[in-house]
Amino acid sequence: MLLQIFFSVLFGTLFLLLFIFRVVEPTYILLFNKPLYIHWYPFSKKLKLSQRQILENDFPFYTSLSSKKKMYFEHRVNEFIVKYDFIGKETVVTEQMRMLIAGTYVMLTFGMRNYLVTLFNKIIIYPSSYFSTVNLVHHKGEFNPQMKTIVFSWEDFLLGHQTSNDNVNLGLHEFSHVLHFHCLKSNDPSAIVFFDEFNEVIKYYSDQLLNIELTQKDYFRMYAYENKFEFLSVILEHFFETPSLFKSFHPELYAHVATMINFKEELLK
């Protein structure tokens, strides 16, 4: 009898979850253009005191969060540094490197439910710009999907992180490429919203009239117009570094980007 009750409850719960994810959430996405929920961690993982101190001292986005959202942020950072390998080339990987790199990725994807992706599995860190044997030029950073690798010059990563108003942030730039590729291939709720809004965002690159509007106001640096991939990465750098200026210059584009990554002011509270 007890066994029958157990299986009845189990199947009822499974049916309810299936109904929620197959019927309720798609409807919710259509109505509100965001996933039904973002953060749910039954066994939330905490950072060590030394790791948390790095975020407190060197990561303003983290310090702006509410206590509850700090717990979510720490859990995601912990998951990130466990999942991906950090490899130093001509340098020793430090705790600061792990925290700031992981924090940058978590900040970019904080409004998305499925944030850990399989497009890369290792992060290679050089002390400064490095010579690429692939195209025989020096690089500051790159995302190589064939090798499943993210590469950073630590000098340039740190400069981008510490200089918060020049709209140049190497970590955000390269991780934006990762997010872009992931959402083009995935069908999870956050990726669906991202893809739909990306199609609106990219009109500002491909539509001649909208493009002229952007170039006339001269807010985005010229590298944004290299191709659609760089366009997305550059506007995301601007979105996080000078959001007030972005919103004042291009309010409609700003709204599309905010929806694309589900980033709202209330996200921080």
Automatic annotation (TrEMBL):
InterPro entries: MtfA_fam (IPR010384), MtfA_N (IPR042252). GO terms for cellular component: cytosol. Pfam families: Peptidase_M90. It comes from the Bacteria. This is Zinc-dependent peptidase. GO terms for molecular function: aminopeptidase activity. SUPFAM superfamilies: Metalloproteases ('zincins'), catalytic domain.
